[in-house]
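re: ur question from yesterday

yeah so i grabbed the chain u mentioned. its 167 aa long if i counted rite. heres the sequnce exactly as i have it in my notes:
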Amino acid sequence: MVSFNEQGSYPSTETRRPDWAALAIAAFLAALAGLIFWDTSRLATIASYSGIGPGTVPFVIACGLLFLAAWTVFEAFRGDFPARERQEFGPVFWIVGGLALQMLLLKTLGFSIATGLLFAFAAAGFGKRKLWFTIPIGIALSLGVWLIFSGLLQLSLPAGPLERLFW
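ran it thru and got these structure tokens back, copy pasting raw so excuse formatting
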């Protein structure tokens, strides 16, 4: 790209640097597309009476991801991504911690308590730090979800001591 200095006379070349975060995202998208292509190639061996089989939709999704990866690389070298805000890690730690806590406690404490804790930690990640308030609300909402899914829909969700009181 040729540009002029402040006086408008001497042309100089302006060097652009690629957006490395965007290139990392493009690499992740391409790797995910490759994984889906590999999995689709295994599904293609399943016989079907028509040309459309179980591998068709994953193949289309992989093609779309590969297109998005190429587009992201193009935009990374072009430099059109807007400036990113500084990443706040506190909210991310709250939400990831809530997910880890739910996975650890799901079998022992049951769906309602574990998911209620996830609800409270996610609320804390979004700024509502009153855990004494959000934990009971999360447990009550999760118990309602458990009752609907287990009672009405007959789906098997992990039951803990709270769920055994109701079922």
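noticed a couple things. The two ends are 70 Å apart (CA to CA). also Residues 1-5, 9-13 have pLDDT under 50 and may be disordered.
anyway ttyl
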